[in-house]
Amino acid sequence: MMSTFFAMNGYGFYIWIAYGVAALVLALELFALRSRRRSVLAEARLTGPDEVGYPAGGAE
Amino acid sequence: MSLNWFKYASPATFYPVAGKMIPWFAWSAALLAAVGLYVGLVVAPTDFQQGDAYRIIFIHVPAAWMSMFLYVVMALWSALALGFNTRLSAMMAQAIAPTGALMTFVALWTGAFWGRPTWGTYWAWDARMTSELILLFLYLGVIALRNAIDDPRRADRACAVLTLTGVVNVPIIYFSVHWWNTLHQGSSVSLTKAPAMAAIMLTGMLVMTFAAWFYAIAVSLARARTIMIERERGAAWVSELTEVRNA
User: B223 contacts in A (CB within 8 Å)?
Assistant: First the structure.
């Protein structure tokens, strides 16, 4: 039952390579975004607020 | 009308709004993808001409549509960034580029593995595929150009100009199957005539399209928030954020 589903009447290789790589790149994007957010947050904490410069809320 | 639209053009205002929107888009995307994959891989019947190979359509077409649509949205934000010189518009354009490149890659990749069993080749230099490949290079070019310029405001303008120049490629992709004799088939779905596919297949494809849409919105907003913190660090509103103080 399951093996006939994965076989896809002989097209399984093409279908699962297509679906698998699509899922993989989406997962990589989410992982990359999460690690970038973490490093950016840590960097912002280390930078701290400017002594002078932006008013709160930004200029525009 | 005293509503001040420019209020929302401030990263400090937009950041929390985007944060509230992301979970809704993310969960909608996950739910729709689950339904769409079930319809596409289990419910929809085997195609009488292509066999089961056609099931690649459920990711190929949504990814291809998103690849073009995201480029147009990126171009609109770029035009706003150039016209009004707003930081947020440029950040939104910057946030879309990686997801656009990803959707373009998925469209090309799934197309290759659909083309092989149905046409006998992974790739052909026909107008549809070549112009879609150029779209991938445009996305990658915009990302590379930004990385090559140190001053973010100069990078905003350079990327906006490149993005707006490249927008000419989008109608070329879309109409390529009409303008040239391509190996790639014409569109199966159009606004002017009845779709050339069974209702259940069309349903699965549209559900997957909405899933891709919500995924792209959620990821772009999340990336935009990260970009805001990266570029506005030192601003008071950033250092006051709980997630920054606890980082």
Answer: 33, 36
Residue B30 included in any domain: yes
Q: Contact A18/B59, CB-based, under 8 Å?
A: yes
Nearest to A60 among B9, B53, B106 (CB): B9
Residue B89 belongs to a domain: yes
Half-sphere exposure of A24 (CA within 13 A, CB side): 9
A20-29: per-residue pLDDT in tens? Answer: 999 999 999 9
Residue B166: CATH number of its domain? 1.20.120
Domain annotation covers residue B12: no
Question: Are A60 and B10 in contact (CB < 8 Å)?
Answer: yes
Which residues of chain B lie closer than 8 angstroms to A42, CB-CB? 247
Q: What's the domain count of chain B? A: 1
Do residues B53 and B118 touch, judged by C-beta distance below 8 A?
A: yes
d(CA B169, CA B155): 22
Q: Compare all CA atoms of chain B with the CA of A13 and give the residue at the minimum distance.
A: B113
Structural domain that includes position B83: 19-245
Task: Provide ipTM, 2 decimals.
Answer: 0.90
Is residue B4 in some structural domain? Answer: no
Model confidence over B86-142: pLDDT tens digits?
899 999 999 999 999 999 999 999 999 999 999 999 999 999 999 999 999 999 999
Query: A20 Cβ partners below 8 Å, 6+ apart?
Result: none
